[in-house]
Write a structure and sequence with these properties.
Two copies of one chain form a homodimer. By secondary structure, the first copy, chain A, is an alpha/beta fold. The first copy, chain A, contains 14 helices and eleven strands. In chain A, the strands form two sheets. The first copy, chain A, has a six-stranded mixed β-sheet with strand order 7-6-8-9-10-11, sandwiched between helices. The N and C termini of chain A lie far apart (54 Å). The structure holds a DNA duplex (16 and 16 nucleotides).
Chain lengths: 355, 355
DNA sequence: CTGTTAGCGCATTCAC
DNA sequence: GTGAATGCGCTAACAG
């Protein structure tokens, strides 16, 4: 039987209240008494029953997720996963709320963070915008004692407690490595379609892609990056123009969220054997993968990210350790041959817009 | 505030004990009373607090893992992950024990299952051997009310509650798809190195590989499968012989656990530009990936599998639902560019033997 | 500074 | 058939 507070109280010759005080590092205990108790804890190998503690405290963990608004399907899928976690929240004593803010607007994001902090939640998960004022806001949250994790897009300089997301440089390298192997001896330049070079994820993916292509394969021209602003119309136009300008185009790496435009442009060209690698498995990319229009899709599992963020925030709030391996978000690689079954709640595309 | 048993007792005009009886479907309640209570449960939207219930019951979940003995590094890594979960077991009210049995010996496995069942654990996870007597043993376990999940290797006919592992046909298809793309226009046959065709996982991977190669790419000779019995010496010999017999060999798919022999044989050949795809990320395959001797490694995350098995068994024991998406074991694809950081406890290779 | 007591939500004796 | 009382391991008033 595991030792309980009673056991350590008896062993140390004190009362439950005193044991509780040292367990929870509360003041009002003499150093000697404290030492006796800590000794007993040590020798008995006591570990606190968190479930019982939470029961006694009637503790719930209010958690705030701050994510970009807009019709980016990945973000909407993320939101759906957060909502799904919220529906399960009674089981894990958690209460999650979602704040959506205009994408890429650091000032509004700062306001949202400050507002969230003012309500003293147990933790905040935020899709960060790469700006100093945001880092400062996160810093304020931490000073207020509110754990913060960055989600999907990191902001290391902020001193956030943890980052929940993939290694985007590695993702770019992976795309480059696959592209190099897929192309083999085939000549011709490679195009890169991004959303915006102002976003850290996109920059890092590009950086990794270029590095891997350069290090491991024969020299190959990589065309100037096309910035589609994650807008399907613009992306389609850019890609179509690129096709015309480079009839010998060998491959395309789409590292952002402009995939519907990309797919439209590729379809319009007919089969030219161009190798295509894109990011995020959503309905459009899934269909294109099946149809052979896209060769591979790199992906991050939004459900995993949300569950991980919740586990990590709870752990930080309780000051306990997490299982590192469980919180590592994988760079999933999907070919048409290892597609997971489509599930009802999976990354919906509610607006019928694009990604 | 969530409704509690008190609320529903008050609402139904009965006592706590009666509420408890209908909650736990115990006899001794009149139909009318039961109806009243169920009504209150329904209208108040009561959901039981499992943590509190477990506290009251002082419940722990004894879980038994039955896995193959021997020096297969994947299995030893699996064992390490089970042990790691055991070390954390106090947190989740779980107590895991490990039974190792000789590999591929169905009779001993049956004995182990029956023995485990006789101690009435909360659940059993077993790396199944594909044999009818094993299916029968699993069936007996379920009749005894003990939930069973198959781990890594399935046995669907057994009526197990759940399978924790990857889709091996999809894994084979994925390997085939990658191989086809990696080879491109390059001519030459492809070899397949397996452990044994008596094992279901290996059969399924081969089947998927051949199907994908045939469906999606130009016709290509796939040589007769080499059965290395997961023995490094034999595997090396078979691969070396194959190299000599087929100077134009274009690729090798290693779908079993004979990778050290494979790697030795490839190294001995010097660079011939042969495309190699293997299974399971362990120290040898990791090194070979970095060195460029292997192009890609398909992998299943043993840590995830163990944690999933525990979650599923607990859920089955409590008769509650699992989060499907969380329990789907991915076919991880590793290139040298997306290798996870090597962690101390990761898939050790304790015996210095092989895989 | 330290101890006593009640209670978190639920399960389980025992009476009635 | 049903209810009252006690306790699981822990925290939080409130006394002293």
């Amino acid at each position: 039987m595991r030792p309980t507070v009673h056991d350590i109280a008896a062993s140390a010759g004190v009362s439950l209240a005193t044991v509780d005080r040292v367990l929870n590092r509360r003041p009002g205990v003499r150093a000697v008494t404290r030492a006796k108790v800590e000794d007993a804890i040590e020798t008995l190998g006591y570990v606190r029953d968190v479930a019982a503690a939470n029961l006694a405290k009637s503790r719930i963990y209010p958690l705030v997720f701050i994510i970009p608004a807009g019709d980016n399907p990945f973000m909407r899928g993320l939101e759906a996963e957060i909502a799904a976690a919220g529906a399960r929240s009674s089981a894990d004593r958690t209460r999650v709320s979602i704040l959506t803010v205009p994408a890429f607007d650091s000032m509004v994001l700062v306001e949202a963070i400050d507002k969230a902090v003012s309500e003293f939640p147990s933790g905040i998960a935020v899709v960060a915008v790469d700006a100093p004022e945001v880092a400062a806001a996160i810093e304020r949250a931490r000073l207020a004692g509110v754990p913060v994790v960055t989600l999907v897009s990191d902001l290391a300089a902020s001193g956030r407690d943890h980052f929940v997301g993939i290694d985007n440089i590695a993702a770019g390298r992976t795309a480059g490595s696959l592209m190099g192997r897929f192309l083999g001896d085939r000549a011709g330049p490679v195009a890169v379609l991004a959303g915006s070079m102002l976003v850290r994820d996109h920059r890092e993916r590009l950086q990794g892609f270029i590095a891997a292509m350069a290090e491991d394969f024969e020299p190959r021209v990589i065309l100037d990056v096309l910035e589609g602003q994650d807008d399907p119309m613009l992306a389609e136009e850019l890609v179509a123009t690129c096709f015309n300008a480079h009839p010998d185009l060998a491959g395309i790496y789409s590292l952002g969220a402009g995939n519907r435009g990309l797919i439209t442009a590729i379809s319009a060209q007919g089969p030219r054997g161009i190798r295509v690698i894109a990011h995020e498995l959503i309905s459009h990319t899934r269909a294109a993968l099946k149809a052979g229009l896209i060769d591979a899709v790199l992906h991050q599992d939004a459900g995993h990210e949300v569950r991980s963020a919740i586990r990590v925030l709870k752990a930080k709030a309780d000051g306990v350790a997490v299982i590192e391996a469980q919180e590592r978000i994988r760079i999933d690689i999907f070919l048409k041959d290892n597609l997971p079954l489509e599930q009802p709640g999976d990354l919906p595309d509610p607006s019928g817009q694009d990604d």
